[in-house]
Design a protein that fits this description.
The protein is an alpha/beta fold. The chain has three domains: 213 residues, Rossmann fold (3-Layer(aba) Sandwich); 190 residues, 3-Layer(aba) Sandwich (Rossmann fold), CATH 3.40.50.2300; 70 residues. The protein has 15 helices and 15 strands. Strands 7-6-8-9-10-13-14-15 form an eight-stranded mixed beta sheet, with helices on both faces. Helix 2 packs parallel to helix 12, helix 5 packs across helix 6 and helix 12 packs across helix 13. The chain is elongated, with a radius of gyration of 27 Å. The structure holds 2-acetamido-2-deoxy-beta-D-glucopyranose (NAG) (6 copies). One 2-acetamido-2-deoxy-beta-D-glucopyranose binds next to loops. The site of one 2-acetamido-2-deoxy-beta-D-glucopyranose has 2 residues, from loops. One of its GO terms (molecular function) is natriuretic peptide receptor activity. InterPro entries: ANF_lig-bd_rcpt (IPR001828), ANP_Clearance_Receptor (IPR052612), ANPR/GUC (IPR001170), Peripla_BP_I (IPR028082). Keywords: Glycoprotein, Membrane, Receptor, Signal, Transmembrane, Transmembrane helix. It is a single-pass type I membrane protein. It is found in: Membrane.
Length: 509
């Protein structure tokens, strides 16, 4: 017996200092091959390599993890699912990275959850993926979802006390990125008056008149569409004098930083000047970018690999976007969680256990701190950009800053909306709102300029009270109408989403 105890003690002493855990991990990366996607695997692979090298080289806790990484083309569609099934015939992977396209991800995540395989994606940003208690239980989202982005709008609506919005989105009926983007906003702005407007870019000619018809009852216009459509709408709004502060215009442009500044309004046509003026009242919500010294090295190494691999079919492949960064951090997060799970006696096949350990934690990513919420979704930080320098037509540039055009930031981790020195409240205050309301009684009483002031005051007061009553009734009615309209729309949308998630993306078109 004492011998047994000393044997145990021996093992405890011997085993305790051995902190590295050795394990082979099969990783299946399912992403499109086509470099027109920001998250194509030729773009993402160098970042995953970098993470792998870093984990190995550190000589620390994670250096015993051997990642065997296999890249497969999802083609942003059904191929993603077929790949997973085909590859799993021989051997199921231990970890899946991707898919990023919504419809590809839906099928893969459902099957992976059923097979108890963790999935980490820097995409799959749609609101539906938040339902982790059932079909998407093994999904961890390493990049902020559209719902997280929408928090920026709830924060602004509270801050500026706006009440209504028109959501304008381009719907290609295929990947539907803008549909999903504004779906997030729609979900979170449930307590406000919301009207939605879809532009079916493939079928119809852009009818800006029709869009602007919907603007009149709203205060805020939130748009997600291609740069050309945004320009058309802004031009039309400018011609109708809707850009003089009586409406607030937003454009959501999360990933493509090359479309800011000149890229957004400049086309070299005769409308450039007008467009530049119109864009002076356009605000852009985008990702908050942070960098730290290490990031420079990462960025350079990724560029080197891209060049070495001879990826020539895209001009901005060397630039680090949210997806590239996300898939790098995905491998780190998995290593941390796997290591922790194995230390606690679980194996790499305990997908649920490893997934749980990736959620509700904060770790140091390649560009800064990454905070995962209790639902396995990353908390997001977003920036509000404006174009202040109308003369030069560029977004205001403040040197020494990486995000030079920013007037405010939203931090998802603590829900704070922080205005920066360049911020100007007037820009976000609705101008001439009350004036348009009182203009109507003014006009009808306009003849009484020379009459006795008492009569005017009395008449104005009476009218004002009548108008107030009238407007109260009217607003009330509008609110009710909107609400029922919205509820119907809600039902419609849910039905649509459910159908969508069953159908393949192409049959929905
Ligand atoms: C990649 O996608 C773009 C846009 O969808 C398409 O025009 C191009 O032909 C595709 N390239 C390949 C190699 O499939
Ligand atoms: C990014 O924006 C620029 C300018 O608007 C556009 O030419 C380019 O195609 C966009 N890239 C992607 C990947 O959307
Ligand atoms: C924008 O256009 C101005 C004037 O044409 C030019 O000087 C500037 O370099 C451009 N900026 C970018 C980022 O392209
Ligand atoms: C990045 O850092 C590593 C080691 O820290 C170094 O070997 C490498 O040369 C650096 N790369 C660049 C492009 O500076
Ligand atoms: C997240 O972790 C904190 C403590 O670190 C805990 O209080 C909280 O309940 C956890 N949340 C969830 C959803 O697990
Ligand atoms: C919220 O978090 C951000 C980033 O971590 C920090 O800069 C900011 O001061 C925080 N704000 C509040 C009110 O705690």
């Amino acid at each position: 017996m004492p011998c047994f105890i000393s044997l145990c003690l021996y093992f405890l002493l011997v085993l305790k200092p051995v902190r590295t855990i050795t394990e082979d991990v099969e990783v299946l990366v399912i992403l499109p091959k086509n470099n027109s996607y920001l998250f194509s695997y030729p773009r993402v692979a160098p970042a995953i390599d970098y993470a792998q090298q870093r984990l190995k080289k550190d000589g620390g806790e994670y250096s015993g993890l051997q990642f065997k990484i296999q890249y497969e083309n999802s083609d942003c569609g059904n191929d993603a699912l077929f790949t997973l099934v085909d590859k799993s015939c021989e051997k199921k992977p231990d970890l899946i990275l991707g898919p990023a396209c919504e419809y590809a991800a839906a099928a893969v995540v459902r099957l992976a959850s059923h097979w108890n395989i963790p999935v980490i994606s820097a995409g799959a940003l749609a609101t539906g993926f938040s339902h982790k208690n059932t079909e998407y239980s093994h999904l961890t989202r390493i990049a902020p979802s559209y719902l997280k982005m929408a928090e920026t709008f709830t924060a602004m609506f509270q801050y500026f006390t706006w009440k209504s919005a028109l959501l304008v989105y381009e719907d290609d009926k295929e990947e539907r990125n803008c549909f999903f983007t504004l779906e997030g906003v729609y979900h979170l702005l449930g307590d406000y008056n919301i009207v939605t407007y879809a532009i079916h870019s493939k079928e119809d000619r852009l009818d800006t008149d029709d869009i602007l018809q919907n603007i009149y009852d709203t205060e805020v216009v939130i748009m997600c569409a291609g740069a050309d459509i945004i320009r058309e709408i802004m031009l039309a709004a400018h011609r109708r004098r809707l850009t003089s502060g009586n409406y607030i215009f937003f454009n959501i442009e999360l990933f493509n930083s090359s479309s800011y500044g000149n890229g957004s309004w400049k086309r070299g046509d005769k409308y450039d000047n007008e467009a530049r003026q119109a864009y002076a009242s356009l605000n852009t919500v985008t990702l908050l970018r942070t960098v730290k010294p290490e990031f420079e090295n990462f960025s350079m190494e990724v560029q080197k690999s891209i060049q070495k691999a001879g990826v020539h079919d895209c001009k901005d492949c060397g630039s680090i976007n949210m997806f590239v960064e996300g898939f790098h951090d995905a491998l780190l997060l998995y290593a941390i969680a796997l290591h922790e799970a194995m230390k606690n006696g679980h194996s790499k096949k305990d997908g649920a256990e490893i997934t749980a350990r990736m959620w509700n934690r904060t770790f140091e990513g390649i560009a800064g701190q990454v905070s995962m919420d209790g639902n396995g979704d990353r908390n997001g930080d977003f920036s509000l950009m404006v174009m202040t320098n109308v003369e030069a037509g560029t977004y205001e540039v403040r040197p020494t800053k990486i995000t030079p055009d920013v007037v405010a930031n939203y931090f998802g981790v603590n829900g704070s909306f922080q205005v920066l020195p360049a911020f100007n409240t007037d820009r976000f205050t609705l101008q001439g709102r009350r004036k348009t309301h009182t203009e109507i009684p003014d006009k009808s009483c306009g003849l009484g300029v020379s009459a006795l002031t008492g009569i005017i005051v009395g008449a104005l007061l009476g009218t004002a009270m009548l108008m107030a009553f009238y407007f109260f009734r009217k607003n009330y009615r509008i609110t009710i109408e909107r609400r029922t309209q919205r509820e119907e729309c809600d039902i419609g949308k849910h039905r649509q989403l459910r159908e969508d998630s069953i159908r393949s993306n192409f049959s929905a078109a």
